[in-house]
């Protein structure tokens, strides 16, 4: 696997013709209710989804730029059907302990590792109202300590220049003494990389992240796009989601949030992958509530999949 990874890294480094967009890496370490540190690191190449393809993936890789080419497009208004969920997301309380009568999780410490579909849920550029962002949504279900590393183009295996892949982020946190529940919002780029020829398969990628969690509770956010062809097609997302389901039976500590069943075209911008600001608000609230269903105060869910 390591030799295959080295080969893939070499391929990535040779794709210099790709016109990669601009997207940042956002790292957040939060001790709720206080934000301890927030750093936004601009990365010129971190805008596109990581790819090991040649011309086949170049067109799709351009969709990794700031959604629809601008931050303004990322904040486009959703269709009318998204309004009730958006208002629900806005009702999140200020960071603190779980509100009585609401869903609550036993995961008081959470590490969230994601790709570009997580950048918008922690970024004030997309969600100016802090109550809509992921930290506040997690706090609303009882999370007290949160670490987030979201990077555009991230996969579990491959890396863009200056980027750390998902597996190595998890390893570094573990070495740093992190102990708690994990949320992995990864796979969109991984399944695309497998489609274009990666020798590291979907199952092996999932197993790497589960190994990094060392048996602690893990919730995966499954994947969904609106695309009908290419590396980031919905067919490839379904292949990833099926791999997650197959893996779940082998890991008693693993749960899957079925984001694919909740997602709506109304939440997306034109690229069919990323979200409007209202879509990101809905996604942040949904992930936090799914964590409370996956690992509630009284233990954990009885089934592998939560919605």
What does this structure look like?
With 307 residues, the protein is α/β, with parallel strands linked by helices. It has a single domain (2-76, 98-306), classed as Rossmann fold (3-Layer(aba) Sandwich). It contains twelve helices and eight strands. The protein has helices spanning 2-14, 55-61, 71-74, 83-90, 116-122, 134-140, 166-175, 188-195, 202-213, 234-248, 259-262, 277-294; strands spanning 23-31, 34-43, 109-114, 145-151, 181-185, 218-221, 254-257, 305-306. Strands 2-1-4-3-5-6-7-8 form an eight-stranded mixed sheet, with helices on both faces. A hairpin with a 2-residue loop joins β1 (23-31) and β2 (34-43). α7 (166-175) runs parallel beside α9 (202-213) and α9 (202-213) crosses α10 (234-248). Mean pLDDT is 76; it is low at 1-24 and 27-96.
List keywords for this structure.
307 residues; Rossmann fold; alpha/beta; eight-stranded mixed sheet; disordered N terminus
Summary, kept brief:
This protein has 307 residues and is α/β, with parallel strands linked by helices. Helices cover 37% and strands 15% of the residues.
């Amino acid at each position: 696997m390591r030799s295959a990874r080295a080969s893939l890294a070499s391929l990535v480094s040779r794709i210099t013709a790709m016109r990669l967009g601009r997207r940042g890496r956002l790292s957040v370490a939060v001790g709720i209710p206080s934000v301890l540190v927030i750093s936004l690191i601009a990365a010129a190449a971190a805008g596109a989804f990581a790819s090991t393809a040649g011309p086949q993936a170049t067109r799709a890789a351009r969709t990794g730029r700031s959604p629809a080419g601008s931050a303004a497009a990322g904040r486009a208004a959703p269709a009318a059907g998204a309004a009730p969920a958006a208002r629900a997301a806005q009702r999140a309380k200020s960071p603190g302990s779980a509100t009585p009568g609401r869903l609550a999780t036993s995961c008081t410490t959470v590490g969230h590792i994601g790709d570009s579909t997580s950048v918008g849920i922690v970024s004030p550029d997309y969600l100016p109202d802090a109550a809509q962002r992921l930290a506040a949504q997690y706090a609303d279900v009882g999370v007290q300590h949160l670490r987030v590393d979201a990077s555009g183009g991230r996969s579990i295996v491959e890396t863009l220049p200056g980027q750390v892949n998902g597996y190595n982020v998890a390893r570094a946190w573990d070495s740093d003494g992190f102990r708690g529940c994990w949320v992995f919002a990864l796979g969109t780029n991984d399944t695309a990389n497998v489609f274009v020829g990666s020798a590291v398969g979907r199952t092996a990628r999932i197993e790497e992240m589960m190994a990094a969690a060392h048996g602690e509770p893990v919730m995966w956010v499954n994947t969904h796009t609106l695309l009908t062809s290419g590396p980031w097609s919905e067919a490839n997302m379904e292949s990833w989601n099926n791999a997650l389901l197959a893996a779940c039976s082998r890991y008693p500590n693993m749960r899957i949030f079925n984001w694919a069943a909740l997602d709506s075209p109304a939440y997306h911008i034109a690229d069919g992958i990323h979200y409007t600001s209202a879509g990101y608000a809905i996604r942040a609230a949904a992930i936090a509530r799914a964590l409370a269903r996956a690992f509630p105060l009284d233990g954990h869910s009885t089934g592998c999949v939560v919605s």
